[in-house]
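During data preparation, a discrete fold description was generated, and the record follows.
___
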Amino acid sequence: MKKSDFYYDLPEELIAQDPLTDRASSRLMVLDKLSGSIEHRTFRDITGYLKKGDCLVCNDTKVIPARLLGTKKDTGGAVEILLLKRLSADSWECLVRPGKKMRRGAEVEFGDGLLTGKVTDQKDDGNRIVEFSYDGIFEEILDKLGTMPLPPYITHKLADPSRYQTVYAKYDGSAAAPTAGLHFTPELLKEIQDMGVHIAYVTLHVGLGTFRPVKEDDILDHKMHSEWYEVTKETADIINETKKSGGRIICVGTTSTRTIESVADDNGVVRPGTGETDIFIYPGYRFKVLDALITNFHLPESTLVMLVSALAGRENVLNAYRCAVEERYRFFSFGDAMFIH
């Protein structure tokens, strides 16, 4: 399979730059994964496609203000650091710009020395390990100095940082939001629960995979970066009981999908636990747990387009994306949604 097999043409003006005032008022494309048939709805109509006994699986990770702007200690040159993964209390795997000037031993300071960082190692993929020094509590300093790490295709300044968080975000650790969940409001979630739909939460801290494009022509040569997850016993029990009772498992987003598919055995039984996953889902993959998916519209040739193609078929997905372009849907993080069932 070639990367180009997952290309579609997207006019730049369809990339959503700002979130809608009402989260649940975004558009919803409903795609039948078997027939390829398409319906056009509004996101709050999702209730019409859910049934009593189904289970929604949501990722309750919380985006941290992971983007830090500082200066190199010896030259005063500008440096940008994006925190990707916490390795210990004060050590992080980071994406650093400009990378050439931040080699092992380089030091950078932020906020007039309120926080300093030292590059202690350089990974094969170019990421840096940075050890931070400070007085006080790291999270409080990060809240003061860091900014929300919006994807590079969003050029507008975000007026309200909470709009890049789901309403159920709980556990700090992500460098990007699980954006399919941005469409839900507390009222809509309550309405769904009142219908008898179970809601189960997993945690997957979104890392570099969100930002890194597929560079290899043969997608099988692409290496996914690992991300930390946790699935509690309570969540595993809800999912397993739902499957046993004949209900559907409907993931909210690709991160929830990758999490439950990583912890399921060959019989589709979800096991609780924590760990790292680098699962890469592309056409030919046989889903063990997932039945349906709520997701956004993803970048051309991305691993996320490959994942939804594994569920609904490449031709169905690319046809749906062409239709979304013709119908002027809004794309990517602050864009509209798709329900694949």
